[in-house]
Write a structure and sequence with these properties.
single chain, 110 residues, mainly alpha
Length: 110
């Protein structure tokens, strides 16, 4: 697991990926979670076998695990500190670095 390599090491990872790849990996992770929840939410359209399989693997996409991974990525990346430096020194790169979501509180996006 890529997230295990990044999150479960004490020292910074030597793995270097292009920024666009990192964005795409995290975006796809969130997309897969969202689609699982949409699929899981339509139980009335599922066969008995599908329902049994979903109940058997009920922790497959646990919201606490997903949020923990995302929070750990934020913490490990030090992006909050970087954004503070950019914003306090008057850099206009905040939007370039973090995009619109870098200037919005997390609870507003949920």
């Amino acid at each position: 697991h890529l997230f295990d390599i990044i999150l479960n090491t004490e020292e910074p990872s030597t793995l270097q990926l292009p920024e666009q790849w990192l964005w795409d990996i995290i975006d796809e992770f969130i997309y897969q979670y969202q689609n699982y929840i949409l699929f899981y939410g339509k139980m009335e359209q599922r066969t008995e076998e599908e329902i049994a399989a979903l109940k058997k693997e009920s922790n497959l996409w646990n919201i606490h695990t997903v949020l923990n991974i995302l929070y750990c990525l934020v913490d490990k990346s030090n992006i909050n500190e970087q954004l503070i430096v950019y914003s306090t020194h008057g850099h206009s790169k905040v939007l370039e670095v973090a995009g619109h979501f870098g200037s919005v509180y997390l609870y507003k996006m949920l």
